[in-house]
Design brief:
- The chain is of the alpha/beta class.
- It is built from 7 helices and 7 strands; from the N terminus they run ααβββααβααβββα.
- The strands form 2 sheets. The chain has a 4-stranded mixed beta sheet, sandwiched between helices. It has a 3-stranded mixed beta sheet with strand order 5-6-7.
- The longest helix has 15 residues.
Length: 201
C-alpha cells in the first residue's frame, strides 16, 4: 500500500524506508493498522511504538494500489480517526503524525492541521537544523514562489508563527490556513523590504 501510494503522489521524487528498515525498526517495534471494506484491506499504516514514553509515531501509510478511489470513499481519512480512537483506548499518551516541512501550503501540512495538533521540532537530528530563508535575486519567479509558500517561523520555545509574503501586485495567501494548537499568530512581510534585506542593501 505504502510504496504505490508514494509513487502515485510523488512520482520520481517518492522516498520511503527500505524493506529491512521497515521490518526491523518499525514492524518489530510497532503496530500495523488496516482499514477494511467488505473484508478487503484498503488502507493501512505502520507505526513505531515507544513503550517508555507511550508514543505512537505514524510512519508508513497508504491505500491499496495507491488508488484515488480509497481517498474518495474516505478510507484514508478513516485510518487517521480510527487510529486515534484505538490510541485513546490503549492509553497512548501521544500520537506523532510524522513530519513535514515548514511550508504551510503543503498538502500534508494542511491535512494534518485539521486535527489541531501541536507542531514541534522533529525529535531526531533534523530538529536541530534551521533554514536560512533568503533570495539572491529579485525576479517575478522568486516573488511568486515566496507568496505561494508561506512559512512557519520559530519564536519562543515551543511556539511558532506563520509568515505570509506579499507585494503590491500579489496579496498574501491567507487561504492557506495555519492554525494549530501552538500556531496562533501570523505576520506579513512585504517582498520589497524582504528582498532588499536579502541582498544586503
Amino acid at each position: 500500500m505504502h510504496v504505490p501510494t508514494m509513487e502515485k503522489r510523488h512520482g520520481e521524487r517518492a522516498r520511503s524506508e527500505s524493506k529491512d528498515v521497515a521490518y526491523e525498526c518499525l514492524f518489530r517495534h510497532g503496530v500495523l493498522f488496516f482499514v477494511t471494506t467488505g473484508g478487503v484491506r484498503v488502507a493501512g499504516a505502520l507505526c513505531h511504538w515507544d513503550p517508555k514514553g507511550r508514543v505512537l509515531t505514524m510512519r508508513l501509510l497508504g491505500v491499496l494500489g495507491g488508488e484515488q478511489q480509497h481517498y474518495d470513499t474516505g478510507a484514508f481519512r478513516a485510518l487517521y480517526h480510527l487510529l486515534l480512537e484505538w490510541s485513546y483506548r490503549h492509553d497512548v499518551r501521544q500520537v506523532d503524525f510524522g513530519g513535514t516541512e515548514a511550508w504551510i501550503a503543503k498538502g500534508i501540512f494542511q491535512w494534518k492541521r485539521k486535527f489541531r495538533p501541536r507542531v514541534v521540532l522533529a525529535p531526531n537530528h533534523t530538529g536541530f537544523k534551521r533554514v536560512w530563508w533568503h533570495a539572491a535575486t529579485d525576479t517575478t519567479a522568486v516573488r511568486e514562489f515566496l507568496v505561494a509558500n508561506p512559512v512557519l517561523e520559530l519564536m519562543e520555545p515551543g511556539e511558532l508563527r506563520s509568515v505570509y509574503f506579499y507585494d503590491n501586485d500579489r496579496p498574501p495567501r491567507f487561504d492557506y490556513a495555519y492554525q494549530c494548537d501552538n500556531v496562533k499568530e501570523r505576520r506579513t512581510v512585504h517582498l520589497d523590504s524582504f528582498l532588499r534585506a536579502s541582498k544586503g542593501d
